[in-house]
Amino acid sequence: MRTENSLKLRTNFRVTKNTLVIDLHRSVKVLSSAPKGGGLRSARYILNHQVKARAGSDSGRATAAKGRHPECGDSARYLRRQATIVGVDDNCVALMTAVPMNQLVVHHEESHGVWVECFATVGITNAVRAGEWPVVESDPKRGTDLGTINLILVTNAALSTAAMVGAVQVATESKAGILRDHAIPSWTGVPGATGTGTDAVVVACELRGKGARVSYSGTHTSIGAMIGRVVAACVTQGLARADHWFARAARHARSASTEKSGDTRSQTNDNIDFQDWL
Fold it and tell me: Class assignment of domain 2-251?
């Protein structure tokens, strides 16, 4: 098994207008929890669109749970408009996140001609532990930051529907394991976050007869191992980039505050530009 860097990815993608656009060149089989085009369907394009990081005065968590973004309104309708803006047809699968696209992470694993690639954006301000009771609008402790872990998995194998469900399971286990390893707490302070309240997973694979047939994708299989590895690598790198982003943003804020007060002794040239992180 070998790992390849992003310059050798098999999947065609671009980032434009705050949107990751994955072009699979033809319709493939896609299973997802996406707010636009979710469920089991055929699609050529997969999008991950960045929205504003603050949810304003509304409860971002509670509103997102209802399938509506607090600033964008109906998520599916909003994402349909974004698809048009980036030149993608309406028959697409689309996600949204507050994580800057500059923090996009990608990873590739391959074994015996079968490969798996993961595209991920990682935000944890909305982290929760599975089983916590959902937030309500009147909760004074509720936050307004939206943080999401979006995972997009693409493979050249032809997975059965059961294997696609298995891929989601393995991806979720891998993500939760990395959050545990990094001791990420819930936004409520409860230890052991397993994800965020708005996470989404997409699995895209070849149609039957177009790739190696895979009927089972559990952790005892090579494709299950590859799924676990690419997700673990992406979430680990995504957490590091999130920490780096918050640290630089904090320094930038302190510098701006110092400059505004007229004290230039602590000013810095540390621009928040993430393009060189990719």
Answer: alpha beta
